[in-house]
Amino acid sequence: MSAPLIDGFGRLHDNLRISVTDRCNIRCFYCMPETGVKFMPRGELLTFEEIERVARIAAELGITKIRVTGGEPLLRRGLPVLIERLMQVPGIRDLALTTNAVLLEEFAPALYDAGLRRLNIHLDTLDRARFQQITRRDDLPAVLRGINAARRLGFGPIKINVVAVKDLIEPDLVPMARYCRENGFEPRFIEFMPLDAQHLWERGRVLTADQMIETLSREIAPLLPVRDADPRAPATEYRYADGGGSVGFIASVTKPFCLNCNRLRLTSEGKLRYCLFAIEEADVRTLLRGGGTDAQIADCIRGNVKEKWLGHEINSSRFVAPPRPMYSIGG
């Protein structure tokens, strides 16, 4: 293996998030407009062969973890085929999929057969009316069927991602936490970030991790920090004092984890990003389709890591929101 991917601030990179599509079958208000969304032409998306090649080269540079994202990745035709290919890349020890689970009931068996075990499922509420308000779709029953199908097949761990928008999600905190406790899932409460396509984000709409910890500790059981947690993980982990499971909080706004970041992102059309909030991107697709060698692609990856900034500066006047919304970058 080549020298590890270390940026100018000494951070080691071993985690690659690969988006396979910018299309989605729901329309969460904090991510996508309800209508008029312009998606990437299909011919501009990386092929499975191209994605597999980038993954193999990245693994040779020290990438050991891959997360497949979108948009909604289950909309990408033949996704289990890609999962099976990525599972076989030498050096990749951890492969996960992020999904809204609307189509999971249908695809869970094929994904399981392809070797996938880890799932992150986006679900903000168990209330059908509020689900429709947030996503602009009446798909909560399908999501719950998908989650149940995955659990029956033996997927695990299953993590549930909840975006915490203030003055909206408060009634869902305790029900969602209880649902996860009862079913052996791990909730991830994510502070609302400035990544929406409609520029609706305001700092006053962020329900903070500290506020959520106080609520869950009061209403369910005291939450205690996990002392042996991975310091490079985006979520700060807590365990219930009564032994009833764990909860993660991704406090990107109030407690940024930039100093421990170990992630790179590949967009669905082949742009490499060193940060979710990056302004600049490295063009991998041109190399892939222009006869670029593996060494040139490796140099492109190294160059992107080398250019990585110290942090996104959400909490300073210097912050500039990325020109892409979340669904176009990849979750």
Shape: globular
CATH superfamily: Aldolase class I
Domain count, please report it: 1
The CATH architecture comes to Alpha-Beta Barrel
Q: Low-confidence spans: pLDDT under 50, at least 5 residues?
A: none
Structural class: alpha/beta
Average predicted local confidence, pLDDT: 92
Number of helices: 10
Q: Which percent band covers the strand fraction? A: 15-25%
CATH topology: TIM Barrel
The level-1 CATH class:
Alpha Beta
CA-to-CA gap between the ends? 28 Å
| Strand line-up of the largest beta sheet | 9-10-11-8-7-6-5-4-3-12-13-14
Largest beta-sheet details: 12 strands, mixed
* SS elements, strand count: 14
Radius of gyration: 19 Å
SSE string, helix = H, strand = E? EEEHEHEHEHHEHEHEEEEEEHHH
Brief synopsis:
This protein has about 325 residues and is an alpha/beta fold.
